[in-house]
Amino acid sequence: MSQKTAVKTRAVAVENRTDPYQIGAARVESDRFWRWGDDNLLPVALALMARRSTTHRRIINDKADYIAGKGFSCDEQEHLLAEFIRRANGEGETLRSILHRLAFDKSLFGNAFLEVVTDAAHTFLSLYHQDASRCRIARDSEHVLLHPDWSRFRESEARTLPLYPRYEEQEDGTLRTVIHYKDYEPMFRHYGVPAYIAGMNVSAIAYKTDRWNIARLDNSFQLSGVMMLDSSVDNDADAERIVRLAEEKFAGNPGQVMFVIREGAEDDHSRFIPIEAQNEGDWQSLHEQATSDIVVAHSWFRSLSGLDYSSGFSSERILQEYEVALNTVILSEQADLLEPIRASLTAILGVDCSSLEIVNRPPTRSKPIYMKVWEARKADGLDYDPEDERQQQFLSEITKYNIKSIN
Question: Both ends of the chain: CA-CA distance in Å?
């Protein structure tokens, strides 16, 4: 579908098979920007830590999955809205896939960026997720600078877009803006701070305790120690040769054993002096405490992070903690992410978004699929209306619609 066709058919998404980042855009006069961290590379450090800490990464993944939900539901009479849910941009991405990336970035970085594309006639609307690690706030605090590698910043490679709700016309004739989501933190104006900020050190501890166990495994759990060798050597080369031979014979992993060569005597007194560690229990306790602290720092729950499965699968506890997470974390995050999206849909496409909702479903089934929506809402203690046609649907119908929306 070309842009010319889009004008005639009032298309939902602009056809743009190229990377949206590559489209030329107006640039601010200065390349100055607000640094994200002391060295402007805090996102790189946060991403690296998330790749190394098992529990930390699991919680980020799970929070993004729960916040994105299982898809969207809306009034079937709103055909344009239903089409937008299935295809939110020219790349054919669904609205849920975009929301999932936003939720992931916000959970990881405390910031997320969404590019909104339209034209002066409002004949289409496209939403593009922008990798938060590529984005920085310009010094005028009214633009976002996008660059593929901030460790090698070049002004000629940067792209500049206005911050929502300001739109600016681009070289391709489109109007674009960027919605900046950020977690509030006192003393931080230009960037948000991730919720787990107080748990960064314990995430590092969990990673280091895992690395310590890997080192022990690589060394076949052999003890570290000092190998005293009796040998007569004439030069350093001979000493080096003896050490290498001893390593091949005695050391499970080079570096775990220190070799000391002394002048040989008539009797060979070579021996291994082990260095026995008595702190294995301390390491285990440290790892368990760090894991618990990570969960607390994320404002999350153990059973939703897969931490208590080894002690038995308790569906009742999982459902209880899911309900708490739903009402304290998930719903509020969903509202924050959807509010500007709803506003853009209404302002640009003129659709009624009051029926647009994220389908939330617990990790274990708690209600039969033959239950009606109003019955399920009543069971959850929510407002319900048996006369509402939308609440007359069975849960199985919503599930079926959700699967179609995702596909």
Answer: 20
**Between residues 70 and 236, the one the model is more confident about:** 70
Q: Which three-class secondary structure string do you get for 36-101?
A: CCCCCCHHHHHHHHHHHCHHHHHHHHHHHHHHHCCCEECCCCCHHHHHHHHCCCCCCCCHHHHHHH
Q: Could you give the CA distance from residue 381 to residue 364 in angstroms, rounded to a whole number?
A: 19
Q: Please write the tens of the pLDDT for every residue from 26-64.
A: 443 345 799 999 889 999 999 998 898 888 899 999 999
pLDDT at res. 396 = 74
Instruction: Give the up-direction half-sphere exposure of residue 282: CA atoms within 13 A in the CB hemisphere.
Output: 3
CA gap 262, 230 in Å, rounded: 5
Tokens of 232: 């007569």
What's the pTM? 0.71
* 63 contact partners, CB below 8 Å, separation of at least 6: 103, 107, 298, 300, 329, 333
Amino acid, single-letter form, for residue 181? Y
State the Cα–Cα distance between residues 188 and 178, nearest whole angstrom: 20
Query: Are the C-beta atoms of residues 181 and 109 closer than 8 Å to each other?
Result: no
CB 345 within 8 A of CB 351: yes
Q: How far apart are CA 324 and CA 371, in angstroms?
A: 22
Bridge partner list, 372: 394
User: What are the angstrom distances between the C-alpha of 406 and each of 27, 219, 402?
Assistant: 37, 47, 6
Encoding tokens for residue 5?
A: 């066709």
Any idea which of 80-89, 179-188, 257-266 has the lowest mean pLDDT?
Answer: 257-266
Cα–Cα distance, 259 to 239 (Å, whole number): 10
Task: Give me the residue label for tokens 């949206």.
Answer: 20
pLDDT digits (tens, 9 = 90+) for 272-304: 555 555 555 466 677 677 788 888 888 899 888
Helices (H), 298-372: 315-325, 331-344
CA atoms within 13 A on the CB side of 136: 26
CA 41 to each of CA 125, 132, 133: distance values in angstroms, whole numbers, following the listed order: 32, 12, 8
3-state DSSP assignment of residue 170: coil
Least confident range from 275-284, 291-300, 382-391, 398-407: namely 398-407
